[in-house]
Here is the input.
Amino acid sequence: MKLLENKVVIVTGAGQGIGRALAKGLAAEGAKVVVAELNGENGARVAKDIEAAGGTALAVRTDVSSESSVNAMVSETLRAYKNIDVLINDAAVFPASSVAEMKNEEWDQVLRTNLTGTFFCARAVMPTMKQNRAGRIINFTSGRALAGSAHGAHYAASKGGIISFTKSLALELAPHGITVNSICPGAIDTPQPKAHVKSEEEFYAKAKKIPLRRVGQPEDLVGPALFLASHWSEYVTGQMIVVNGGSIMW
Ligand SMILES: NC(=O)c1ccc[n+]([C@@H]2O[C@H](COP(=O)([O-])OP(=O)(O)OC[C@H]3O[C@@H](n4cnc5c(N)ncnc54)[C@H](O)[C@@H]3O)[C@@H](O)[C@H]2O)c1
Here is the structure.
């Protein structure tokens, strides 16, 4: 039997990057995956790829920054698969701006998507998980939450908020048998961090400073997510797994 056989897993932001790798990796372990993605075309492509590989997936166009969109996605999940076992909050945005020049709208959009989106999604799956007296919520934070970001104070603040939110929700949901943990990636080879450097070379040059001598690949996050989503992490809650090749040891 596969590790996540018949488990229903929602992955937000699964249209590309880390979320796409997680959706495919968890589907390969038997999960029924809901690809909750703002970019409808990308989301549909990922669900189609999973089905073509013999897995089960449903693409639901979702804007995590909108509570009604999140609630509609959760209703569609329950209609299709009758249950929710795991939520992975991966969707995020990371525009670059100094605080001095940051538009209020940009600050709001980053906090609303990254932090409030995590809150909306978590709250929407809680009734089902409470009924089951079981469930897993996995939130994506970032090394920027711990080290800061010279051109992304909004992003760093949103990701710091996710760490605190994770711990608080873990305390709230522990009596219900639901665990809440976070994953903190370092530099991972996806479109998001590459938008912050002048060239591909500059991005890959980061490897020189990483003890494991390479930047991470989206697939490097699959193992930690599988662990937190499966029965192997039953006694783990309120924790953060750092996946950064050893670049910063917390
Ligand atoms: N790539 C890295 O180096 C890195 C490092 C640290 C943390 N992270 C975190 O890992 C997660 C995934 O990062 P990534 O690099 O794969 O990002 P990415 O930008 O490649 O993918 C993010 C996905 O989220 C989707 N999305 C954006 N806004 C949305 C919304 N409102 N509703 C639904 N979906 C939305 C995007 O369309 C995109 O498909 C993020 O939470 C990110 O902050 C990434």
Summary: The chain has one domain: 8-242.
